[in-house]
Amino acid sequence: MDTSASTVPQPLAHPFLKGQKALVTGANSGIGKATAIGLGRVGADVVVNYVAGRDAAEEVVREIESFGVRAYAHEADVSQEDQVVDMVSRMVKEFGTIDVMVANAGLQRDAPITDMTMAQWQKVLDVNLNGQFLCAREATKEFMRRGVVPEVSRSAGKIICMSSVHQIIPWAGHVNYASSKGGVQMLMATLAQELAPHRIRVNAVAPGAIRTPINRSAWDTPEAEAELLRLVPYRRVGDPDDIANVVAALASDFFDYVVGTTIYVDGGMTLFPGFATGG
Ligand code: BGC
Fold first, then answer.
1. Residues 118-155: pLDDT tens digits?
2. Secondary structure class of 156 (helix, strand, coil)
3. CATH (domain of 248)
4. Which of the listed residues 127, 163, 166, 220 should we mutate to test ligand 1's pocket, taking the one with most ligand atoms within 8 A of CB?
5. CDD domains under this entry (predicted)?
């Protein structure tokens, strides 16, 4: 199945992020890719971060450039402090500043607790949680240095943390992943409280089941998809563009008074669907 085929309308032709500079981590596939392209479509210049898969990242860059905005690919492992520092400082050199940090990069290393190795635990925490901390910290330094530029945005900067429904839904067999996303929720909320007086908006987007490589086995056969849809009241698997559209809106001044919130984009997965017929 072609995971890039989207059924989601892309009505956001107005360049409402024109002049803003965005960085999206993990932007060469899945939700990150759709988000980087979505931000370019509405006028932002975009840095496409990736850790492996340069060709895919360059393809995302070309697609973004087709909107008449600037983009380049940057290889960096978000869990490595020096690489994140270099990535943001290069962006400030090339684009002048950063307005939107989308801390998206994430991965799963699933195992029942008795089989889970320390390496599996550590890797997921390193990328999903430590990586978001580093990206938020480096973006914040530049937001504070520059402050608000009213012609660009009402805020001094936006941090959007890619979380998951598993920041609140426990997930057996995925304790590393669920713990990392629970951590992301508190990282986001605490930074939102700390940084709001600086006019920096920190929020999160929490996707449910989105059709991407990370969860291919959950949707790539009719049986698996039917099973998955029992957990989705809206009865469709999400597309990466469902997330990209929300991130673009959240990054814009239409959402300027939204601070410290998680927007669930999950077709109702967090509504305890098991209770629709029981309880
Ligand atoms: C996970 C997916 C999963 C979805 C819903 C996401 O955060 O990465 O593998 O399908 O949550 O359970």
1. 999 999 999 999 999 999 999 999 999 999 999 999 99
2. coil
3. 3.40.50.720
4. 166
5. GlcDH_SDR_c
